[in-house]
Amino acid sequence: MLNTTDTMTPAQRAEAIANGREVDRLPCNPNIANGAARVYGCRISEFNYNPKAIAEAQMAVYRKFGCDSMRIFTDLFTWAEAMGATVTFPDDATADLAKPAISRIEDIDTLCPADPYKDGRLPIHVDAMKYLRDLAKDEIKCSAGIVGPFTNAFFLFGVDKTLKLIHKNPEALHKLCRISLETCKAYAKAALEIGLNPTISEPMSSCTVVSPKVFREFSLPYLKELIDFIDSYNATKVVMHICGQTDKIWRDLADMGIGGMSIDNVASLKDCKRVIGNDVKLLGNVDPSGIMHSGTPLEVRIKTLECILDAYDSPKGYVVMSGCSLPVDTPFDNIQMMMDTVKEVGYPVDVERVIKMLEDCRK
C-alpha cells in the first residue's frame, strides 16, 4: 500500500522548508493550468468572464490532488489583448491570438500601458485573485502568472514582424518592450496589493527561439526591471518559466535575483542544478505532453522518480513539476500518480530506496 497521505498543508511545508525544518515530502506542482476546468466541471470559456470560476477551479484542483501551489493564469495573451490585440475564445479550449495590437512600426507610439482594473480581461483576473486569496486562506500560497515584457511585445506586433525588428529596427523593439513592461508592472502591482506573488513566463526568451545575445539585449533589461519592481514590495522571490532550451542563459537568470527556475523537459535538471542550483530553487521537469498527457501512470511514476533523483539535493530546493503547463485533457490518473509518487518517496529522500522503486517499475 502506497503512503499517499500528506501530514502538512502546502503553506506549512513551504514555511518548514524555508526555515530548514523537517517536512513530510518534496513540494509538487503538476501545473494543471486550464485542465482545472475539467476538474471543476466547467468549460474553459467560462474563465474568460467568470472570475469566481477561475478561482474555484484552482481550489478544486487543490482539493482533488493536493498540489503545492495555485496560480491565476489562463493564457499568454491577456496582457496584449488589454493593450489592443484581438483574441479568439473557443468554447472549450484555451484562448489564442487572432490579431496583434498594431501592424505598423509607426503605431508603436499609440500603444498605452494597460490598466489592470479597466482593460480587457485583466479586471476579471484581478477579481479572480481576490476570490482565490479568500478561498485559500492560510492553507496554500497563491500566485499570479504574468507574461514577461519581451514575450508580450511579440503579441503586440506579431511574432514574425517582431523577430525582424531584432536586426532591422532594434530601437522599435526596445520601445515595444518598454511599453509592454509598464503593463507587466501595473499588473504585478495589482497582484502584490491583493497578496499574491507574481510568477513570470517568458517563452519567447527561450534559446530555442532567440540567441542568448538577443535575450541579453532585448529581454534581460526589462525582465530585470520587472523583477526588481516586484522585489521592492518585499515579495517572495519570483519563479521564472521559459520554454525550450535555456541552458545558455541560466546564469543570466540566476544573477537577476529570481527565486526559482522552472525548466522545460528538453532541458537537463542535473545540468541546471550544477550551474545555478546554489542560487535558485529548481522546478521541473516531467514531460507534460509525451509522459503526463500521453503516457501511462507507470511511465509518469518512472519519470517522476528520475527527476527526484536528478534534483532532490539541489542546494536551494527542488519542486517536482511538469516541464510546462499540462495539456487540458491530461488523464487524472497520471496527475494522481505524480502526486502519489512524491508522497511515497517522502522526505528526506532515501536515494537507495528511490533507486529500488525505479528498478521495480522497470521489471
From TrEMBL:
Keyword list, A-Z: Methyltransferase, Transferase
The main enzyme category here is transferase
> Transmembrane stretches, by residue range?
none
Instruction: Output this protein's name.
Output: Methylcobamide:CoM methyltransferase MtbA
- Keyword Transferase attributed: yes
| Pfam families recorded | URO-D
Molecular function GO labels: methyltransferase activity; uroporphyrinogen decarboxylase activity
Matching entries from InterPro entries are given as:
Methanogen_methyltrans, UROD/MetE-like_sf, Uroporphyrinogen_deCOase
Keyword check for Nucleotidyltransferase: no
Q: What EC number is given for this enzyme?
A: 2.1.1.-
Q: Example GO biological process term? A: porphyrin-containing compound biosynthetic process
